Amino acid sequence: MQRRVLSVALTFGMAAGTLILSSCATTEARISQHPEIYQRLSATDQALVSQGQIRPGMTTDAVWLAWGTPDQKLPGNVRGRPTETWVYIRYNTPPSYGGPYYYGPFDWSYIPPKFPYPSKGVTFSNGRVVFFRYLPSPPPL
Protein backbone atom coordinates (compact mmCIF):
# COMPACT_ATOMS: atom_id res chain seq x y z
CA MET A 1 0.00 0.00 0.00
CA GLN A 2 2.78 2.41 0.91
CA ARG A 3 4.47 1.74 -2.43
CA ARG A 4 1.25 2.56 -4.29
CA VAL A 5 0.87 5.84 -2.38
CA LEU A 6 4.48 6.72 -3.19
CA SER A 7 3.88 5.85 -6.83
CA VAL A 8 0.78 8.08 -7.06
CA ALA A 9 2.54 10.93 -5.24
CA LEU A 10 5.55 10.68 -7.54
CA THR A 11 3.37 10.66 -10.65
CA PHE A 12 1.40 13.68 -9.41
CA GLY A 13 4.60 15.52 -8.52
CA MET A 14 6.12 14.88 -11.94
CA ALA A 15 2.94 16.04 -13.69
CA ALA A 16 2.76 19.22 -11.60
CA GLY A 17 6.46 19.93 -12.19
CA THR A 18 6.05 19.47 -15.93
CA LEU A 19 3.11 21.83 -15.98
CA ILE A 20 4.98 24.48 -14.03
CA LEU A 21 8.17 24.19 -16.09
CA SER A 22 6.33 24.23 -19.40
CA SER A 23 4.21 27.27 -18.52
CA CYS A 24 6.63 29.55 -20.34
CA ALA A 25 7.78 26.93 -22.84
CA THR A 26 5.80 28.15 -25.85
CA THR A 27 5.92 31.34 -27.83
CA GLU A 28 2.20 31.89 -27.22
CA ALA A 29 2.66 31.54 -23.46
CA ARG A 30 5.54 34.02 -23.40
CA ILE A 31 3.56 36.53 -25.48
CA SER A 32 0.45 36.20 -23.31
CA GLN A 33 2.47 36.54 -20.09
CA HIS A 34 4.43 39.57 -21.41
CA PRO A 35 2.11 41.48 -23.78
CA GLU A 36 3.96 44.73 -23.07
CA ILE A 37 7.12 43.37 -24.72
CA TYR A 38 5.15 42.06 -27.70
CA GLN A 39 3.31 45.38 -28.17
CA ARG A 40 6.62 47.29 -28.37
CA LEU A 41 7.63 45.28 -31.46
CA SER A 42 6.98 46.41 -35.02
CA ALA A 43 4.17 44.67 -36.93
CA THR A 44 6.77 42.75 -38.95
CA ASP A 45 8.56 41.56 -35.82
CA GLN A 46 5.26 40.66 -34.13
CA ALA A 47 4.42 38.42 -37.10
CA LEU A 48 7.85 36.77 -36.99
CA VAL A 49 7.81 36.29 -33.23
CA SER A 50 4.33 34.74 -33.39
CA GLN A 51 5.78 32.13 -35.77
CA GLY A 52 8.84 31.53 -33.57
CA GLN A 53 11.16 33.19 -36.08
CA ILE A 54 13.79 35.90 -35.74
CA ARG A 55 15.73 38.23 -38.05
CA PRO A 56 18.91 40.31 -37.95
CA GLY A 57 18.36 43.55 -36.04
CA MET A 58 15.81 42.13 -33.58
CA THR A 59 16.20 42.94 -29.91
CA THR A 60 17.02 40.43 -27.19
CA ASP A 61 13.44 40.76 -25.89
CA ALA A 62 12.00 39.83 -29.31
CA VAL A 63 14.30 36.80 -29.58
CA TRP A 64 13.35 35.72 -26.06
CA LEU A 65 9.66 35.89 -26.99
CA ALA A 66 10.26 33.88 -30.17
CA TRP A 67 12.76 31.29 -28.93
CA GLY A 68 12.59 31.38 -25.15
CA THR A 69 15.35 31.35 -22.56
CA PRO A 70 18.65 30.05 -23.93
CA ASP A 71 20.43 27.11 -22.37
CA GLN A 72 23.75 28.95 -22.49
CA LYS A 73 24.85 32.58 -22.79
CA LEU A 74 28.37 33.02 -24.07
CA PRO A 75 30.16 36.38 -23.90
CA GLY A 76 32.41 37.27 -26.80
CA ASN A 77 34.17 40.02 -28.67
CA VAL A 78 34.03 40.80 -32.39
CA ARG A 79 36.26 43.56 -33.77
CA GLY A 80 36.66 45.07 -30.33
CA ARG A 81 32.93 45.10 -29.59
CA PRO A 82 31.33 42.96 -26.90
CA THR A 83 28.89 40.31 -28.07
CA GLU A 84 26.70 37.71 -26.44
CA THR A 85 25.71 34.42 -28.06
CA TRP A 86 22.67 32.49 -26.94
CA VAL A 87 22.80 28.74 -27.51
CA TYR A 88 19.74 26.51 -27.47
CA ILE A 89 20.29 22.83 -26.66
CA ARG A 90 18.19 19.88 -27.76
CA TYR A 91 18.48 16.25 -26.79
CA ASN A 92 18.77 13.36 -29.20
CA THR A 93 17.58 9.92 -28.14
CA PRO A 94 18.70 7.03 -30.32
CA PRO A 95 15.72 5.34 -32.02
CA SER A 96 16.53 1.91 -30.67
CA TYR A 97 18.75 1.57 -27.69
CA GLY A 98 19.06 -1.67 -25.72
CA GLY A 99 19.78 -0.29 -22.26
CA PRO A 100 20.34 0.75 -19.54
CA TYR A 101 17.19 0.08 -17.62
CA TYR A 102 16.19 1.91 -14.47
CA TYR A 103 14.29 0.00 -11.85
CA GLY A 104 12.68 2.30 -9.36
CA PRO A 105 9.20 2.93 -8.02
CA PHE A 106 7.93 1.84 -11.44
CA ASP A 107 9.66 -1.45 -12.09
CA TRP A 108 8.75 -1.24 -15.75
CA SER A 109 10.38 2.16 -16.26
CA TYR A 110 12.89 2.57 -19.05
CA ILE A 111 14.88 5.76 -19.34
CA PRO A 112 16.72 5.94 -22.67
CA PRO A 113 19.93 7.96 -22.83
CA LYS A 114 19.74 11.50 -24.16
CA PHE A 115 22.61 13.19 -25.93
CA PRO A 116 22.72 17.01 -25.97
CA TYR A 117 23.49 18.98 -29.12
CA PRO A 118 23.18 22.68 -30.00
CA SER A 119 20.09 23.22 -32.18
CA LYS A 120 20.29 26.96 -32.83
CA GLY A 121 22.18 30.03 -31.78
CA VAL A 122 21.97 33.79 -32.03
CA THR A 123 24.64 36.43 -31.50
CA PHE A 124 23.87 39.93 -30.26
CA SER A 125 25.87 43.13 -30.37
CA ASN A 126 24.50 46.23 -28.64
CA GLY A 127 21.34 44.27 -27.81
CA ARG A 128 20.54 43.49 -31.47
CA VAL A 129 20.80 40.29 -33.51
CA VAL A 130 23.86 40.31 -35.76
CA PHE A 131 23.89 36.61 -36.63
CA PHE A 132 21.75 33.54 -36.09
CA ARG A 133 21.81 29.97 -37.25
CA TYR A 134 19.71 26.83 -37.08
CA LEU A 135 21.96 23.80 -36.70
CA PRO A 136 21.13 20.41 -38.18
CA SER A 137 20.27 17.50 -35.94
CA PRO A 138 23.09 15.00 -35.55
CA PRO A 139 22.64 11.69 -37.37
CA PRO A 140 21.03 8.90 -35.35
CA LEU A 141 23.45 7.04 -33.12
Number of E-state strands: 4
Helix content: 25-40%
Instruction: Please tell me what the overall shape is.
Output: globular
As laid out across the biggest beta sheet, the strand order is: 1-2-3-4
Structure description:
By secondary structure, the protein is α+β, with helices and mostly antiparallel strands. It has one domain. 34% of the residues lie in helices and 26% in strands. Strands 1-2-3-4 form a 4-stranded antiparallel sheet, with no helix packed on it. The termini are far apart. Residues 5-23 have low confidence and may be disordered.
How are the secondary structure elements laid out?
Elements: H1 2-21, H2 27-33, H3 35-39, H4 43-50, H5 60-67, E1 72-78, E2 81-92, E3 115-125, E4 128-134
Antiparallel strand pairs: 1-2, 2-3, 3-4
Helix pairs in contact: 2-5, 4-5
In short:
The chain is 34% helix and 26% strand. It is of the alpha+beta class and 141 residues long. Helix 2 packs across helix 5 (60-67).
Task: Supply database-style keywords.
5 helices
